[in-house]
Amino acid sequence: MSNIAILCSGGDVSGMNPALKHFVEYSLQKDLKPFFIYDGLEGLIDNNIKEVSYSDVSGIITRGGTKIGSSRSKRFMLEEYRKIAKQNLDALGIDMLVVMGGDGSFRGMEIFYKEHGVKFCGIPSTIDNDIHGTDYCLGVDTALNIIKTSIDAIRDTASSFKRAFVIETMGRDCGYLALISHLTSGSELCLIPEVAYDLNDYEEDFKKQIKNGRRYFIAIVSEGIQQDSQEIATWFEEKIGMESRVSVLGHIQRGGNPSIYDRLMAYKFVNYAIDGLLHQKNESVICYTKNGFEFKSIKEVTSKTKELDTQLLTCLKCS
After folding, report:
1. Model-level pTM?
2. Looking at 12, 128, 130, 262, which residue is catalytic?
3. Is 8 among the domain residues?
């Protein structure tokens, strides 16, 4: 019986717990001995590793976040600590890893494989959906649904008070969350890092809309744009003449009950990751594209910045 472990690295997402549950179930089905590495790469260094079974994942499928914790590890960037991590795995006979995280985590694991030969498969897991080579990352659907619920609720109060609301989403330098939320919520303005903008271009049209009876505006902005959200709100007040409020959704987007789609994708990602490791996919990331699931190299997913769908960007310009 071979031993296999799973860890979470970087930011948590809703979908990790369903993935952990199925990791245990599918590993045992494949006659593998499953282990959890707690607190990410830090736990790998500190030997916080435990053999697990069905009882360890009972009831976690409905929970956001990750039962086994996560971390961002500066120590793992140093060769001396990677050697310790390898010794910890060797002591338990673990020679395969499933890693849920982003491109930074995958780069670290690539170095680990080249130095010590520990096979791994990465599962893209970030609500930012900013990993090149995959159209979908675990946790994105739940985050979008949380944003949807928030926008719908804010719209109620915006319309009641004749206000403009500037709603800030996460995403770092990727505007995916803001773009999709804009297109599916009917908001009046969307600003993302990928598209240059000039607020003056909207001034005449927005004033005309008010003259024709518009009572409120919803603006969705990504955290990575050139201005902060308060500046956008100030523009609404000073140039458009409408009282404004800012709502920064923040980390509420990262938690919450995992959606059906994220639970299903967690199941599929884990299946492919484990099967890939058993069939000599020794250093890869399992990605999801229009062609279905594909194994891609670390170089491919980390060599370029994720580009948003051109059709969606066209829709933004038309909206």
Report:
1. 0.94
2. 128
3. yes
